[in-house]
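ARCHIVE CARD
CATEGORY: sequence design from structure
SOURCE FIELD: tokenized fold
FIELD CONTENT:
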């Protein structure tokens, strides 16, 4: 975007406090928590779109990334009982617990062009560090080229604590077995007052951050999610992003931030209405503006649906995640539009090109491929 367009945004009819925020962003300066609250409360969507697009272009040009990947969800049997969850055996009518052989069978059947396997599920009471270590080794025996992105910080915190070892020791063991990176799940909202209300028994704010910090220090990169649109306040969303931005300043180990809209079917929070499209797009734009040290913002289409994921490309998003051809059930069970998430590479490219962006295939570490 040229500087004329950048400066045009200063002539938008917005109040002087918003104008000052725009000036800071144009100069590449950081916005603080108070300014971010002003954006949530007072900024219009068109203005936020323009501003977030300036930042997106600065970081990623016109490129929009996607990856050929597939998911395995080993089990939905869970020691926790998060109130927003439609997926675990507590709420879903179906209960499953795949054997190692069943998971390896999926690996054998995966297309040769797939680069990443994303393995995450519930916190099973009996599965531990060695179990997952063996699984990763066997996956690599079959497909040494696959990047293994596996186990949220909540699953890791549980299996590492069970061994009575440090995060660094547990993660080093898994890294030696083939773990390459960590998905962003389990973060929900990093505020313990709120966690007590919606996911009391799972890893605390401090524990979630400690797993990611230890991973980054071992060279294992990760993502961070934010589950929004339930009972959290704007202040709590901002506090969540502040903790992530602070950790990223120290380690630089996060690849992407992934806002996840709360879906309200079949869970204990079903009485809460889902957020509007306006709220969703505003949240993407503000995340792009606040998290200036996160290289990528992911619009996770199996949760958003394809049309909304495409729209999010005009609100700071530069990553569409994958051509998931699987069995992801976290969102379909919670009422997402994508009941059987599947997207071919050519459909992915069309979605990106229709938004006037350049589709770029990536690997798990955002290196461009092909
Ligand atoms: O932590 C659970 C969320 C997450 C609901 O790192 C719900 O690339 C909405 O972390 N409505 C797990 N969301 C999924 C996850 C993820 C997804 C995509 C990409 C990556 C990545 C990570 O799913 C949980 C929770 O926040 N979730 N229930 C629900 N009802
Ligand atoms: Fe278990 Fe994860 Fe569902 Fe919580 S969100 S109950 S940890 S599967």
């Amino acid at each position: 975007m040229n500087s004329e367009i950048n400066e045009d945004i200063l002539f938008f009819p917005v109040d002087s406090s918003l104008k000052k925020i725009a000036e800071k962003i144009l100069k590449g300066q950081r916005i603080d928590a108070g300014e971010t609250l002003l954006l949530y409360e007072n900024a219009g969507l068109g203005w936020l779109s323009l501003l977030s697009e300036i930042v997106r272009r600065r970081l990623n040009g016109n490129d929009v990334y996607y990856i050929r990947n597939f998911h395995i969800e080993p089990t939905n049997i869970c020691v926790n009982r998060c109130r927003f969850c439609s997926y675990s055996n507590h709420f879903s009518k179906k209960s499953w617990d795949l054997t190692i052989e069943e998971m390896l069978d999926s690996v054998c059947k995966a297309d040769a062009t797939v680069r990443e396997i994303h393995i995450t599920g519930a916190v099973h009471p009996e599965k531990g560090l060695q179990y997952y270590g063996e699984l990763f080794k066997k996956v690599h025996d079959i497909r040494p080229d696959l990047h293994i992105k596996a186990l949220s910080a909540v699953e890791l915190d549980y299996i590492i604590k069970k061994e009575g070892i440090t995060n660094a020791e547990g993660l080093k063991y898994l890294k030696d077995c083939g773990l390459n990176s960590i998905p962003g799940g389990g973060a929900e909202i990093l505020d313990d007052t709120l966690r007590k209300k919606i996911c009391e028994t799972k890893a605390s704010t401090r524990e979630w951050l400690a797993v990611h910090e230890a991973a980054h220090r071992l060279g294992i990169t990760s993502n961070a999610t934010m589950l929004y649109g339930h009972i959290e306040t704007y202040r709590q969303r901002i506090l969540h992003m502040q903790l992530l931005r602070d950790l990223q300043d120290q380690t630089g180990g996060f690849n992407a931030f992934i806002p996840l809209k709360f879906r309200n079917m079949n869970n204990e929070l079903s009485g809460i209405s889902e957020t509007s499209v306006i709220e969703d797009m505003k949240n993407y734009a503000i995340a792009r503006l606040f998290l200036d040290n996160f290289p990528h913002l992911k619009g996770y289409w199996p949760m958003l649906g394809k049309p909304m994921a495409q729209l999010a490309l005009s609100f700071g998003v530069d990553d569409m995640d994958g051509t998931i051809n699987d069995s992801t059930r976290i969102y379909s069970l919670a009422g997402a539009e994508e009941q059987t998430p599947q997207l071919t590479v050519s459909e992915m490219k069309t979605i990106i090109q229709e938004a006037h962006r350049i589709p770029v295939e990536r690997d798990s570490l955002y290196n461009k491929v092909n």
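CARD ANNOTATION: Strands lie at 63-67, 69-72, 116-119, 147-150, 181-182, 221-228, 254-261, 296-297, 319-322, 358-361. The radius of gyration is 20 Å.
SHELF: design records, drawer C
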